[in-house]
Every structure is written in structure tokens, then in C-alpha cells.
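call fold(seq) -> C-alpha cells
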Amino acid sequence: MSPISWCQWLQNTRLATAIAESSWLFPLIEGSHILALPLSVGMIVIFDLRLLGFAFRGGPASKLLNEFLRWSKIGFAVMFTTGT
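ret:
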């Protein structure tokens, strides 16, 4: 199957048609994608600030890593799902 025929098949699926014809579905998907970006990247930035000694100095870095990594993975999963 050539890439063009695959894209045409994808465009004609029920999901693609529903997204194209809905006035709220595309903004919902795109908004979720955009809001998940700071969730994923923001957690990494905050943890990096902890490693540099600028934030969250009171607790061990390993405890923060477990908490931030979970939220970062959730953000990445939402971005991946809504962005493809």
C-alpha cells in the first residue's frame, strides 16, 4: 500500500469523518494535546531545578522523581495519543 493510498484510506475512516464534521471534537483533541505538553515537559523542568538545587530542597530527589515521573508519563501518553 502506497503512502498516498494509506492517507486516503485514513481520511475516509469513520473517526476522521467524525473529527472533520464535528465542531467541538477537533478543538477538544487539540486542546488536550496542547495542555498535556506543559504537564509532561513541566515536570521534567521542575525536577531538573531540584537537581540543580533551585527548588524543593527539603526532600530527597528520589521521592520527587517517582512523583514527577508518573505525571510526566501521563502527559506524554496524552500528547502521543492526541497528536498522532
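Residues 11 and 17 are 7 Å apart (CA to CA).
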